[in-house]
Amino acid sequence: MPAPPANKRVKNKRISRNIIIGSEAYNLPPVGDPTRPKGIPDDHTKRWTVYVRQPPGDPDIRAWLNKVQFKIFNTYENPLRTCESPPFEVTETGWGGFNIDVRLHFQPISGEKAQYRQHFLQLEKYGDEKMQAMQERTGCVRSEFLEVVQFNEPTEALFEALTSESQWDYLTAGMKGAKKAAAMAVGPNGRPKRGFPNGERTAQLPEKGGEDVPFSGEGEDALIALIREKIGVVQKSLEEETKKREETEKRLKDLRAELGHDAAQQAAQQASGDRSRRR
Ligand code: SLL
């Protein structure tokens, strides 16, 4: 099968993906503390990481995301940091928060231009008392936002990638044997997967059924045979009923004829009686 073209678009389709854009910051041990890492400027009080991640269990971000650039504060060395592959993150040390430009570059098959997001690097505690107590206890300040990326009328190649079962392969990548087989038998929605075991999508039913395979060619044949048998039963009883109806109709006709004859006589008698009484 040739690869779908990267310029043809799938009309009236929109596919969305969620990503998490966030940062986490930890206090550095103070200057003079033997555990403070060497080579960090004295005025730096935090170590932080800014990142783009996929929500756990979501389809593979790599299906559509090619690379991420983080534009950090311009006093840093090489402030435009490029991550060509996961993890899409930058770790640095510093003393203050600032806005970070996040540039999302899509896979070439998508034919999409880069998109921009912003994330404020939050270093200080924030939120309600309970939240700040937690930040104090763990020594970690985290700030995360869910971002949605929408693909309107994606290219055929991107559509293929965003609908492919292989987007979940990463979930079973580390598994082996029975565990992997069990995990692969169900899709991300917990239902048995459609298609062939090699992940090829198809409307074709698998030949044989099984515990995890409720619909199969075998099952379909059995169902057709059952339906044919029941059609036969219905046909037979229809014939019987038709015969009964014909018999009943015939009896009714005979009875009417008989009754008609009697009724006519009766009416005639009554009429003559009436006449005799009037006289
Ligand atoms: C702003 N909040 O947005 C201020 C500036 C800059 C923080 C914050 C160290 C940088 C370095 C650092 O943490 N800078 O060492 O280059 O205007």
Automatic annotation (TrEMBL):
InterPro entries: YEAST_sf (IPR038704), YEATS (IPR005033), YEATS_dom (IPR055129)
Similarity-based family: Belongs to the YAF9 family.
Annotated spans, Disordered: 186-216, 236-279
Gene Ontology process terms (BP): chromatin organization; DNA repair; regulation of DNA-templated transcription
Gene encoding the protein: YAF9
Biased composition (Basic and acidic residues): 236-261
Domain remark in the UniProt entry: The coiled-coil domain is required for assembly into the NuA4 complex.
Entry keywords, A to Z: Activator, Chromatin regulator, Coiled coil, Cytoplasm, DNA damage, DNA repair, Nucleus, Transcription, Transcription regulation
Listed Pfam families: YEATS
Purpose: Component of the SWR1 complex which mediates the ATP-dependent exchange of histone H2A for an H2A variant leading to transcriptional regulation of selected genes by chromatin remodeling. Component of the NuA4 histone acetyltransferase complex which is involved in transcriptional activation of selected genes principally by acetylation of nucleosomal histones H4 and H2A. The NuA4 complex is also involved in DNA repair. Yaf9 may also be required for viability in conditions in which the structural integrity of the spindle is compromised.
High-level lineage: Eukaryota, Fungi, Dikarya, Ascomycota, Pezizomycotina
One Gene Ontology cellular component annotation held by this UniProt entry: cytoplasm
Protein's recorded name: Protein AF-9 homolog
Quaternary data: Component of the SWR1 chromatin-remodeling complex and of the NuA4 histone acetyltransferase complex.
Natural source organism: Westerdykella ornata
Cell compartment(s), UniProt: Nucleus; Cytoplasm
Residue ranges of every copy of the YEATS domain listed in the record: 9-165
